[in-house]
Amino acid sequence: MYIGQRFKNAERTGDDKAAIGNSWKNYWQIFTQEDFPKTCPFCRLPMADDEIDGCHIKINGFLPGSWSVKKYIIPGHHGCNMQLGEEFDAKITVKAVEAIEK
Question: 0.85 exceeded by the pTM?
Fold first, then answer.
């Protein structure tokens, strides 16, 4: 995702299990081979490793109000991850990895 790209939290993902790794955070790191960003893509505030969730999101399509069918994982604050129904503009560039379940 790039700065300014619109996204929202995907709903009803609490029971989803990552196909690889022991958590969605670990899943994101396996596929990106990157460290977690130091800034939250939802709110632009600093983010420590122990504050990070593997957040399920949907990405805005080309048409207003259209959202991706697929779900993606990005790292973000737990509190930001719990703002269901809210829409966000990405505050940083971050890789979004397609969420594939077991």
Answer: yes
